Amino acid sequence: MISYIFKRLVLGIVVLFGVITITFTIARVIPSDPAAKWAGPRATQEQLQKAREELGLDKPLIVQFGKYLKNCLKGDLGYSLRTHQPITEELKTFIPATLELVIIAFVFATIVGIPLGIYSAKMKDHLLDHVSRLFSIGSVSLPTFWVALFLQLIFYNWLELLPIGGQIGTDIKIMYEVPRVTGMLLLDCILTSNWTIFGDALKHYILPCFTISLYPIGLVARMTRSALLEVLNEDYITAAKSYGLKDRKILWVYALKNTLGPTAIVLTLSLGYTLVNTFLVETIFSWPGLGSYVTTAVTTLDYPAIIGVTIFSAACYVILNLIADIIIALDPRVRL
Questions:
Q1: Which of 23, 293, 320, 327 could tie 94 with a disulfide, CB 3.0–4.6 Å?
Q2: Which residues, 6+ apart, have CB-to-CB distance to 271 below 8 Å?
Q3: pLDDT tens digits, residue range 263-296?
Q4: Does residue 326 fall inside a structural domain?
Q5: Residue 79: what are its φ and ψ, rounded to 5°?
Q6: What DSSP string runs through 77-106?
């Protein structure tokens, strides 16, 4: 088991090294002068030369790459060309809002997706099964940005029930002091017992969380249904039925536990997808997370910031894949 985890860890490090190499190469190939962006539009030749020296662009590429790799290992992703601030510090500011959104959506997808898959398998070829499969296929197939815009049209424009975007309303920002403890607004409101802001923020979380959770709900429901139907056809399930055991006990005690492995793997990998997929949703809902940070970086051609988010996303994927591999290895059948 330790050897297996070590091999997977080494493979993850190799993947990260590849991502760092590719991002470094792309940043040097793109026809742009980072020194000019760093020094400003009216910089003199002396200022441009000084900027190149500060950014290390006057060194050979192999030396630049070595320094870049060394800084990445230390957690230093460089400086933003737009703000001149450390990218790592900027990410610390924007990550909590995105992370809270992803966690809520992930929990909701788990709570809805697994029971939906279970009852779909239990009621195979019945109306509930057909509706569940139709919903699962639709949630996986529909473009996320279209779902986000459609929900805004219905719940904000037509029904006027939910806000169109942002974390909290403008009037709440003006009248109350927003708590800042962890950077996760709902959690900060709970820690400071600020229920007024919590209630307003909760309304703002509904649409983006539901939009992000649609894809993992469909994926988890389909995987749970498929795995459960396969298990229900096993010989030991037939033997349990022949002993006169109740269907409920067979489903929830004997069959379900053997489907949790594949479902947990899908959940883990979908979490990584959800983390990246949330960037576009955040832009649509004006969410102050990594999505808005990346959008600003792209529009201003802030390549170090874009690369920093790319490396962070790749690291999250590697960690989640490692967790999925460990979950797989926990199954004795897989180890054998």
A1: 293
A2: 102, 106, 216, 320
A3: 878 888 788 778 877 888 998 999 999 888 988 8
A4: no
A5: -120, 145
A6: --B-TTT-SBHHHHHHHHHHHHHHHHHHHH
Torsions phi, psi for 86 (to 5 deg): -60, 130
SS3 labels along 153-200: HHHHHHCCCCCCCCCCCHHHHHHCCCCCCCCCHHHHHHHCCCHHHHHH
pLDDT at 194 over 80: yes
The one-letter amino acid at 40: G
Separation of alpha carbons 130 and 166, rounded Å: 36
CATH of the domain at 244: 1.10.3720.10
Domain containing 37 equals 2-73
pLDDT band at 121 (very low <50, low <70, confident <90, very high): confident
Within a domain: residue 323? Answer: no
**Model-level pTM?**
0.86
Same domain, 9 and 139: no
What's the number of domains the chain is made of? 2
What are 162-173's pLDDT values in tens digits? Answer: 999 889 988 888
Inside any domain, residue 160: yes
Closest CA to 256 of 91, 106, 119, 60: 119
Structural domain includes residue 313 = no
